[in-house]
Amino acid sequence: MIKITYFGSERDISRATTVINQEKDLAHLSEAKARLKIQELIDKHQLKASILVNGNTVWSKKRILANLRRIMKSGTLYNEDQKKPPILSQYFYQFLNQSCGSIAHYDIYGWIHKYPTINHLKRFFKKNEFGKRVLDDIPEWKTDARAIVEAIERMLFPFDTYMKTRNSVAGEATT
Questions:
Q1: Range of 34's domain?
Q2: Are 83 and 150 contained in the same domain?
Q3: What is the pLDDT of residues 25-49, one digit of tens each?
Q4: Could you tell me if 21 and 34 lie in one domain?
Q5: Are the CB atoms for 53 and 34 separated by under 8 Å?
Q6: Does 165 fall in a domain?
Q7: Rounded to whole angstroms, how far apart are CA atoms 59 and 20?
Q8: Are strands 50-53 and 4-7 parallel, antiparallel or unpaired?
Q9: What does the pLDDT average to over 94-117?
């Protein structure tokens, strides 16, 4: 049985609990399956409350990928106009720190200082601060984070993804 916890404004928590409670079988799913279902609900209903399963945040894939697209378009994680907030969102920064093998930096600006461009971000996903590929550093039960990182890799490394897909299809055809 999973334990779901909510954080945020009263309004955001009320909306999230209403949506989540409509899923009758959710509490009886394995944590891995429940995390994916909750992620789907977060994205479908644009839930703003933080939702934790057994004490660990379930992340919005849609929010993180939208922010990644902005970063890729600009080529940097910072904003040239220092009066404006960075392009890297606080939400994506928290995901990087809590789920992707990044040591604690002083704040978002410290993280951006270490990884200022899209090329730095690409290198991070290939080898995080613990010396591992980000996807290889995420436990199997954290299915929501794994799904996000797989999508990030497809966006950051489209040729690698294409070649893997092509090779697996070619391998199946010759077998």
A1: 4-58
A2: yes
A3: 898 899 999 999 999 999 999 999 9
A4: yes
A5: yes
A6: no
A7: 14
A8: antiparallel
A9: 92
Quick check: is 175 in a domain? no
Question: 63-101 as b/e, with b when 16 or more CB fall inside 10 Å?
Answer: bbbebbeebeeeebbbeeeeeeebbbbeebbebbbebbb
User: What's this model's pTM, rounded to 2 decimal places?
Assistant: 0.89
Length of the chain: 175
Query: What pLDDT is attached to residue 171?
Result: 61
Instruction: Give 151-167 pLDDT, tens digit per residue.
Output: 999 999 997 655 555 56
Are residues 69 and 124 part of one domain? Answer: yes
Of 114, 107, 141, nearest to 128 by C-alpha is 114
Q: How far apart are CA 71 and CA 91, in angstroms?
A: 13
136 and 115 in a common domain: yes
User: Are 71 and 155 found together in one domain?
Assistant: yes
CA distance 83 to 165: 43
148 and 95 in contact (C-beta within 8 Å)? yes
